[in-house]
């Protein structure tokens, strides 16, 4: 697989959409040193930086607190898109449909279901023992005895698997049962996410391009795992980090250094140098 230096048109990139966990973030889940000044340079060059993640908007914006109004965000695997502090796209799931998923996951002893309602999140009281793990991704968590009767505006259901068995659960249970009704995707070995059909990170980046009048051929994406595939296959410039799993090689054109080696920083430097 070719490295990023082989992208002859890297200087044409106008949007850079980047996955967070194991892509931009180090294995310690922190932003790489030197990112802030590079994001300033991207903004000055008119290039839009867009964190694209299964994480919800509040957590994403919190990580870029000082400059969030200069960025775009593609949270919840593309189920909403934010540009400079304002929502430009939302995709809400039908209440009856998300109740079906919540009921199924509530019956699964492997699963910890989370209802995502943009700024508020709902988890069963029985699963409070997993608060430390869940709160990494969700801020305002409301613990409820039952999901019955809840009818809040929601754009995503996430299911956490403490046993790191999300992949077999996806293959054996959740994809067969729900993929005809919802877009179901693995977010690593710990999570399965459910959004409306047609919603994914690739669609989210496409909505951003449309809003800004930018050809998606001039958009770039960086990722490492399953839920990054739709955006990697949709943009004109697709990159995976060196720590991505081998099965991701067929979904991107170029490779950059690993998350722990500042791969995204290296790519930003290459983009700016080619301008």
UniProtKB/TrEMBL annotation:
One Pfam family linked to the record: Hydrolase_3
Keyword annotations: Hydrolase
Domain of life: Bacteria
An annotated Gene Ontology molecular function: magnesium ion binding
GO cellular component, one term: cytosol
PANTHER family in the record: 5-AMINO-6-(5-PHOSPHO-D-RIBITYLAMINO)URACIL PHOSPHATASE YBJI-RELATED, PHOSPHOSERINE PHOSPHATASE
Protein name: Cof-type HAD-IIB family hydrolase
Organism: Collinsella aerofaciens (strain ATCC 25986 / DSM 3979 / JCM 10188 / KCTC 3647 / NCTC 11838 / VPI 1003)
